[in-house]
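Database export, one record per block. Field names are fixed; values are copied verbatim from the stored entry.
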Amino acid sequence: MKNRMEIEKKRVAGVSVIAAFFLTGIKLVIGLLTGSLGLLSEALHSGLDLVAAVITWFSVRISDTPPDKNHHYGHGKIENFSALMETFLLLITCAWIIYEAVNRLVTGNTHIEVNTFSYVVVLISIAIDIARSRALYRVARKYNSQALEADALHFSTDIWSSAVVLLGLILAQFGWFFADSVAALAVAFIVLGVSWKLGKRAADVLLDRSPEPLVQQIEAVLNVAEGILQYHDLRVRTSGAENFIEVTIHVQPGLTLEHAHGISHLVEKQIREALPRSFVHVHIEPDKHPSENTTIDTIEHNSKTQ
């Protein structure tokens, strides 16, 4: 199962790299030939897409490496770090596009040459981005990969930005050359919105922010689990595609050690079924006043230390 997952993730990431390389090349060539800022901004955007795709390709190769002596929780956060790097690359794109577009609008230097190739390259770009964003989303959701999801979100917004550039080219065809620079600004603002979403989510994971949707799913399991009188100290963190979950549950006092552990094992199983690729640790306490804690808690503690 894991080998299949690794192969599928690497394959879709590799295809994304090839597509980004192709799109960067044709956008750059046609943009230079026509002088279209919209196309040149898209070429720069695709160039950074290429860098981001390469980073993603490396990250998915590393992220599924098993835990080792120096990385007890595995290497999953390389995917989140990759997503954060994509954010910085997108912000660099926005800065250049906004500067160049405003400069052209202020100076009036907005004339561009629009030809058939201009339209062809944008339409090809839209078709490729639709195909690869769907493929990336499918694999990202299947294996809970934030790096691939970041790439998918990135490329899905490329569809809209390319559509805006296409509109700018059409208007320029009728002599409204300023529309190309306006289209470039629209691309920049689209990219800014994507950058904020990607950056915030990646930073939340890297800073171990509690993922509220996952917490709600776990609480839903705990609220109906048999044998639990109450629970507390629920802690959840994510690392790449994996979740690390800890919780303390209270059980009926006087239960045998086997019965208490049976309840904890059942809870762990139910959580893992609700959230695949999760590492779950359930601590058991008898439901009594702290001063009256008895053998179950003591026996459990001793069994862990032996």
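Remark 1: Residues 290-306 have pLDDT under 50 and may be disordered.
Remark 2: The beta strands are 230-239, 242-251, 278-286.
End of record.
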